[in-house]
Prior knowledge:
The complex is a heterodimer of chains A (about 110) and B (about 120).
Chain A: E1 3-5, E2 10-14, E3 19-21, E4 24-26, E5 32-38, E6 45-49, E7 60-61, E8 72-74, E9 83-90, E10 98-99, E11 103-108
Parallel strand pairs in A: 2-11
Antiparallel strand pairs in A: 1-4, 3-8, 5-6, 5-9, 7-8, 9-10, 9-11
Chain B: E1 4-7, E2 10-13, E3 19-25, E4 32-38, E5 44-51, E6 57-58, E7 67-73, E8 76-81, E9 90-96, E10 107-108, E11 112-116
Parallel strand pairs in B: 2-11
Antiparallel strand pairs in B: 1-3, 3-8, 4-5, 4-9, 5-6, 7-8, 9-10, 9-11
Amino acid sequence: AQRVTQPEKLLSVFKGAPVELKCNYSYSGSPELFWYVQYSRQRLQLLLRHISRESIKGFTADLNKGETSFHLKKPFAQEEDSAMYYCALRGQAGTALIFGKGTTLSVSS
Amino acid sequence: GAVVSQHPSWVICKSGTSVKIECRSLDFQATTMFWYRQFPKQSLMLMATSNEGSKATYEQGVEKDKFLINHASLTLSTLTVTSAHPEDSSFYICSARDMVSGNSPLHFGNGTRLTVT
């Protein structure tokens, strides 16, 4: 079965502190992993996907197949990073995304 | 960038009535659109896959006669909640993928907040 687990409901950090949002997945094949972000009162936006291997807004995520993880990291959090972050998995191309329950990141000064 | 427009943003209806939600891809074509439902402080749950020109595929536990999906064109899918009840109150979100761009990511609408009184 496909499953995405985000163990933390809420992560509170101070501005400038490192951030790691955890994501583990369960899938028998080779999935595609995504991170989506939802700022207050806005729609879900794609933050990054593992096949792109790019850094967006200072965030990076590496797919670790051995640990079946796709943790989202940023070395220095900013207040504007405060949002809801969803990890998502897509099994076969063209199919729907399966989402984790989301983690609220709160960055305070 | 690709934009998905969802309408209405919010709707309040009486129990027993039906509500139609529209999902449009504004600058791309989508043979497939997905409908999700989100309860407060919970994740997005896939309800159904909407296929242009054919029947929708519903996830287990989703009543196809209650949540009618029509995907009449490459840019429009509609979700109709029939005979709505208070337990149908939720946040409904559609998403679409640009069919031209191959394995492109999903783009999401702004969601529709449905409240059934």
